[in-house]
Design goal:
single chain
């Protein structure tokens, strides 16, 4: 079953996300990928993946991905954010992570968790249905 996966990375984490995506390129290529602007451009260029690009994070891309979560149109988020270098749009980052928690959306914020997420039999198979909260 094809999933919609959002890929986001802060500037200092973009190389780490590219390396991670390269390691999991075969799995990622089976799914619909969305990303914030710069990150999506790098993924498309470096890996040749088809990536739908939203606006850059500070220009509303984080909020566009948040809207996908609220509309139940996203299956997971891989967001390599940089906790050591707060971004000017830090409230947007926190809101995006909050949306993942509210809507019980799988989210990975580092390589180890992202590795476990995309290699899980629950992710690879098509039988897992996450619980959607009744709000």
């Amino acid at each position: 079953m094809q999933k919609t996966i959002a890929l986001v990375a802060h500037d200092h984490k973009k190389p780490e996300l590219i390396d991670w995506a390269r390691a999991h390129q075969a799995e990622l290529s089976k799914h619909k990928l969305v990303a914030t602007g710069t990150t999506g451009g790098l993924l498309a260029k470096e890996l040749g993946l088809d990536v739908h690009r939203f606006k850059s994070g500070p220009l509303g891309g984080d909020q566009q991905i948040g809207a996908l979560i609220a509309e139940l149109k996203l299956d997971c988020l891989v967001f390599f954010w940089d906790p050591m270098n707060p971004a000017p749009h830090d409230p947007d980052v926190k809101a995006l992570l909050r949306m993942c928690s509210v809507w019980n959306l799988p989210v990975a914020c580092n390589t180890a968790t992202a590795d476990m997420l995309v290699t899980s039999p629950l992710f690879i198979g098509d039988t897992y249905q996450r619980a959607i909260p009744e709000l």
